[in-house]
Design goal:
Length: 249
């Protein structure tokens, strides 16, 4: 039996990165890019066999609370303070096929806009029952979901008075470690989105819209939590490397 996968067959071909869609590395309005953006032309390295066909995460056992940020850091049996949310969505490849068994990780500030991180400098208090990290593995149809509280906006040292809109950071592994994507999710209707220098580094408004989760009243838990849907599109199953420009902010 011949099990070699050729580009263009049912497993999907290589997709070239669309650099007009992704944010450029150098965006002076987002100050730190001025000293970390590459100063030389990028080199294109072919993916190795292990990168393209390496391990996935379908058999990795997760803790039952890994996708429950309301309870997974509880110190006293209580729950995190804040607007309770369900965040869910589908991970798809560029051919709109679900990506099952892939690891989705998420991290965020607490309801006051404060991260649980040793280098965090914002004066908003920590919530003793909120850690701010979780993970999930997509099901057979590519869906992930988790419970959390809505993160607060927070100020950051960029311009004189810049604030990040409420957001959740995401990491998604495709079918191999080399396919890791890091991005940020925003909340529908938030006016702060359009004032953010990091969001402003995305050249196409449609690209920004794709980062905004939609309020989904049909999947709320009555008297408990609102729901937001955030779908994520990866490039083809045998994609070249993603770049991760928005990490850590
Ligand atoms: Fe952040």
């Amino acid at each position: 039996m011949n099990d070699i996968i050729l580009p263009g067959d049912d497993q999907g071909a290589l997709f070239a990165r669309d650099r007009s869609w992704q944010p450029p590395a150098y965006t002076p309005g987002y100050k730190s890019t001025t000293f970390r953006a590459p100063r030389h032309a990028l080199l294109s390295l072919p993916g190795t066999a292990s990168e393209l066909t390496g391990p996935t995460f379908g058999d990795m056992p997760l803790n039952p609370l890994d996708n429950d940020l309301i309870r997974n850091y509880s110190q006293d049996g209580g729950e995190a303070i804040g607007q309770r949310l369900i965040v869910y969505g589908q991970v798809l490849d560029e051919n709109a096929r679900p990506v099952p068994g892939t690891l989705v990780e998420f991290w965020q500030a607490n309801a006051g806009g404060r991260y649980r991180h040793k280098r965090e400098g914002y004066l908003a208090p920590l919530d003793p029952n909120f850690g701010g990290c979780g993970r999930a593995i997509t099901d057979a149809n590519g869906f992930y979901h988790f419970r959390t509280v809505k993160p607060g906006a927070y100020p950051w040292p960029n311009g004189a008075n810049d604030w990040r809109p409420a957001h959740i950071h995401f990491s998604i592994f495709g079918h191999a470690f080399a396919q890791r994507l890091i991005t940020q999710m925003y909340f529908e209707g938030d006016p702060m989105i359009w004032q953010c220098p990091i969001v402003g580094s995305v050249p196409d408004k449609a690209g920004i819209t794709q980062l905004i989760a939609k309020l989904d009243r049909h999947n709320t838990t009555p008297m408990d939590a609102l729901a937001y849907r955030f779908d994520i599109v990866l490039r083809g199953r045998r994609s070249t490397l993603f770049e991760n420009k928005l990490e850590g902010n």
